[in-house]
Amino acid sequence: MATLEDDEGNINPTTTILADEQDDAKTVCTVLDGTTDQLTQQHYVRSIDSTVVIRQLPSQGLSFQLWPAATTLVTLLDHHRGHLTNSPLSLTLPDPHRPLNILELGSGTGLVGIAAAATLGANVTVTDLTHVIPNLQFNVDANSDILTLNGGAVDVAPLRWGEANDVKLIGRHFDLILASDVVYHSHLYDPLLETLRFLLLDHEGEKGATVFVMAHLRRWKKDSVFFRKARKLFQVEVLHVDSPSQGCRVGVVVYRFAVKLQKSNAGSLANVSL
Ligand SMILES: C[S@@+](CC[C@H](N)C(=O)[O-])C[C@H]1O[C@@H](n2cnc3c(N)ncnc32)[C@H](O)[C@@H]1O
């Protein structure tokens, strides 16, 4: 099983955290508490006139920090709530007659899941590796008022990519799967795709979720290997492209993965080798 510890040596999260480069309108306040090495950020979400508060613990590793693609997804969700008709998410998130059930993978600090629940009035399950769960729960609890006010709810659960049993425990009753900045190490590509295959494809007569929406900041050429593998299983399209932040060559891209429609042999995608 892939562990986060394996990742820490190969990536420098400080170069990918754009606390000062992110949308200034969103990040209204950052407080660095030198004694606890804790960062508290307030993200104003205009469409619901609410502020999501997120605690980061930078010294504890990359799972405890906010990554740039998360902010892009929050901005899109905010825009969607405020401008339903011309939102890049409008075809993916039709106005439902019941609250959407959403699953977030690799939630890290939980900003995306919390903002999705609040802006869409959705039931969101945020997930990550076991050691990340306490900070995730802390952030969900810190935002309970705005979640209640906006008719959203967030559950926290461990979910390791590539572990079918973890998905079985959580269930497969989701309308939408979300993630931001989860493609960053090649040894995680296959476990992540296995989890997506399990969540999105039909199993034993049970329908999978319809779509996976993923915000991604391309850092390495090898990221294309993930997309090549993903296209074997899913129809992948681009929903939105951010302008590059200062100092970056590319901006965050938001992708939509949907199950490929097959003319015959509908079950065969479950067996495609990656
Ligand atoms: C780069 S961080 C992005 C965090 C958050 N989505 C964001 O955009 O701020 C990648 C996240 O994936 C999680 N992750 C890494 N390997 C994982 C695995 N095998 N199973 C589940 N989550 C994993 C990490 O713990 C981390 O929270």
Automatic annotation (TrEMBL):
Entry keywords, A to Z: Methyltransferase, Transferase
Signal peptide: none
GO biological process: methylation
Classification via InterPro entries: Methyltransf_16, SAM-dependent_MTases_sf
Entries under Pfam families matching the protein: Methyltransf_16
Transferase is among the record's keywords: yes
Superkingdom of the source species: Eukaryota
GO molecular function: methyltransferase activity
Protein known as: Protein-lysine methyltransferase METTL21C
Record lineage: Eukaryota, Viridiplantae, Streptophyta, Embryophyta, Tracheophyta
